[in-house]
Every structure is written in structure tokens, then in C-alpha cells.
Amino acid sequence: MCNDINMQNFNNILIRFLEFDYINSRRSFLSSDWTEGWHRSPWSVLTYCHSGITETQLKDPDCAYRITSGELSVIPTERMKYGYIISGEKVVVDWLNFRFMVMNSIDMLSLIEVPNKLTGEIAESIGQLIVKINKAVHETPGIATSVIVKSHAFKILAILLENFPITTELDSIIDAHNHFKIVIDYISENYHSQISCEILAKLANMSKATFFRKFKQCLKVTPYQYITSLRLKEARYMLASGTETIGEIAASLGFCDQFQFSRIFRRYCGASPLTYRQQQHFHSFH
User: Fold this and answer.
1) At what angle do helices 7-17 and 170-190 cross, to 10 degrees?
2) What is the mean pLDDT of residues 153-165?
3) pTM exceeds 0.85
């Protein structure tokens, strides 16, 4: 498959457009009655088990699996239905909630054929990197924390790429870059303002209908969803580290009003803006 595409071109795209999107992470001590429902998660989750046994049920009713000490659970975007404890008085796990995004729309992990459960040296290597990320974020935060976290995260991605095949979806990334580079650059500079599909179609030198169809085919999202993803990414940063009110954030990012922003944020991020801000502040001090 790699011979069918221009790998140098693809690597150039990754150098420019590949981003690690950290959401949160933690070491958790779970009791035997723990259960967690994740009906919709827009990010992937890696969970490294130190002790006890957990079971995870994905959306597919036939896809349930257990992880125990030294094993790693890999839950791709939007696939987890719920998880619960099977045994162990104190189940201890380190988990990481994250995404690797290409061109702000294509989930890199979705391109790698990774099984839901990893064992052996691969699980141990990734598990120790997750532990290091948690220590950097929660135990020894400092000015270098973001660099340390990203360094460990990209090591995780490198391990996955070295050990598991990638899909032919790489072609779509190349197509998106070739067809929509000028459009993507324009959106990146103007996503906080109102952007019409007519303007984007004109930039791409296509009719509106053709542009919409090809954009969705190549980037896996509609133009509106792509713009929204950039706005929500900026919103998460502002909620976590800024002092602006939710209304001010909504206005600065091009949303019609605070209510539209809150509704869209909850749909895509799984929590209201206020709840998300409170969670991020809690993680910063615990």
C-alpha cells in the first residue's frame, strides 16, 4: 500500500498538520462497584491497568474484552459504551484521553489498525509513557510540562505506527492536501469569523455543490464541522486557561450566542462549557 502513494508528500503533510490534542489524564483507583458509561466520546482513550481486572463493552454488542495487570485498553473515538470492574479490591489504572489529528479533521488513530487490547512489551512501553504523562501533568507541572507531554505522546504514536499496519485512508489525506490547501489555510486564519460555503468554494475554484461533496469526501467532515472543530479546540484552551466568560468566548469564536456555543460544545465535548472549565481547574490543583 505504501508504494501506491507519495510517502514524502504524506510525511510533509504530517509535519505541517499533525497535532496532538491532549484532553485529560489521571491515575485512578477504582472500587469493585465502579462502572462508567461513555455513550459518546469524541476522543480516544488509552487505559493501562496496574492491578485488578476491568471489562469494557464497545458499541458493537459482540465486542467486549477484559484487561488485567500489565495490559492496555485501546478505545478509539466514539466506540466505548461502558466499562466496569470485574475483580480486584483496588483496581489501579493510568489513562489518557487524547487525539492525534491530521488537518484538524482526520483522527490519526483511526488510520492505524490497533486492536482494542494490547499485551506484552507493547502494552508495557505505552503504559509507562502514560504514567510519565500523568506525572508531568499532575505531580511535577512546570514550564516544560507541555513539551514533556507531547514528547511522550508522540512516542506512543511511534510505537503504534511501528507495530501495526495503517489503512489506505492515507490517500484521502493526500487528496485533501492537494485539493484544499488554500481553503484550509483560509479557514485556519478566519475561523473566528463568519465563513460562508460560497467563499470557500470560490477559493477552491469549484461550484458550491462540488466543493461541499469533495470536501466531505476528503476530510471526512463538512466545511461547517471543520470550522466548528477549530472553534471548539480554541474554546477548550480558553476555558482551561483563560478568564473570559462563556459569553465572551462564544462571541470571540464566531458563535451566534452563548446558548448556541453551549449546545454545540456539549454535543461535541460531552460536557457543558462550565462543567468542562470546572473539571480542568480541578485537574490543575489535584
Assistant:
1) 30
2) 95
3) no
